[in-house]
Amino acid sequence: MPEMHSDMHINGLSYDSRNIEEGWAFFAFLPISGGKAGDEFIEDALKRGASVIICRASDSSKALQSRYPDALFITNDNPQAEYSRWCSILHDQPQKDLQIIGVSGTDGKTSTCDFLYQILCTEGLHPGLLSTVSMDDGSGKRPSPYRQSTPEAEHIFQFLSDCKSNGLKTVIMEATSHSLSHVTSRLSQITFSGAIYTTISSEHLEFHHTMENYIQCKLNLARQTDSNGFVIYPKGSLHESAIHDSFKGLDISSYSTDCYSIASRKLDETIFNEDCTSIAFCYGEDVFLQNARAALVASEKILHRPLSAAVLSTLKPVEGRMEVLRTPNGIFIIDFAHTADAYMRLMTFIAKRCPDHSITAVFSSGGNRDRNKRSKMGRIAAQFCKTMILTSEDPRDEGFEHITADLLSDTAAFSPVIYRIPDRQLAISKAVSLSTPYTVTLLLGKGHEHTIEYEKGSAISWNEKEVLLKALKEARL
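Above: the chain's sequence. Below: its structure in token form.
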């Protein structure tokens, strides 16, 4: 535990004043995306027993310091980064004894992490895993309890400490642009042994403001990779030159997104048969195959030996990613797709594989998040779908109507049937009622998530698959 004076011992750390107990250190985080500043909660933390305050210098902090002379105030321009450092020290810097592989990109991070985990397990190496959907600290794979793909530093270092205690040597982690940014600095204390990139397209610009900032945060993963480590990226990436120019000292490899090998083609062909009446495996060109390829290349780097592409045939689908359900009244697919790039890949694949089927999409976009992607998402959906059902994803404080207007702002060139149904359960029931034997219905944007977030932080419990199964049962399909 960090000690500030010979007679002062810190009992705990938190950035949430509600968690503060006697003798704890409180970190007053800087505001993010219009949120409240941690400075506003310093006095609450002090009243709850905080003995150390880490905050930026301000008139209000100086005033509080004079009113609470027994507390130690430490000024820091980036309390988030300092919090990560303290969390690392609290857990005895477990990252130094682990081979940590980071996976970043706009889409496909979770699938790539899970596929890499599965391949390494198949090959006899049990790694740790921390992804949006799952975690394994050496005590078994289970659902991740965190809504954030990369949680706050306290959870990261507790997880890494548990991995070390359980005898693991290798850990696979999702590395989001938020966590790699200097603003949150959640991963700033970690030196990675490998960096894997999936596709990079527009996302989270409400936080990063510009695509350049977003890309630079993604590139921090490679910047934090050990000189003996590796970097893997998709061949033909728009950011290929930036990766090569910036990280010439590292082992840099690319992976193809084309179905060029016999093994991969066989996997691809097992999804749908000729008349689309059976579904066996959830891979497809430009959908999950490239994530599997990235995992295969990374596995070879980690294991220091070549692997047959046939190992991909052992992979199992990831919850909420291309989960397929066949019914007498058509095909239903649950997928976490929530960007324009993901929509294009998924819908192009479905249109190619099922040319005689119409597509219905149930979707929306998260409120208080990147608005720049919405018009593109709506346009792509309108281009491929016969029916669009606009509903709620996580409307938060922005509201259904405003989000829907953005999604429909560039769809005039197409003529799908459009329904506006804010209640997601009713929207799914509507999609079921409209389905036919020649319909592919896509339920997009929620995937594995177990809540829908509404205004003022309120949320309801949610399970996309259970809601779909209930709607099918009620419709007797």
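The chain has a mean pLDDT of 85.
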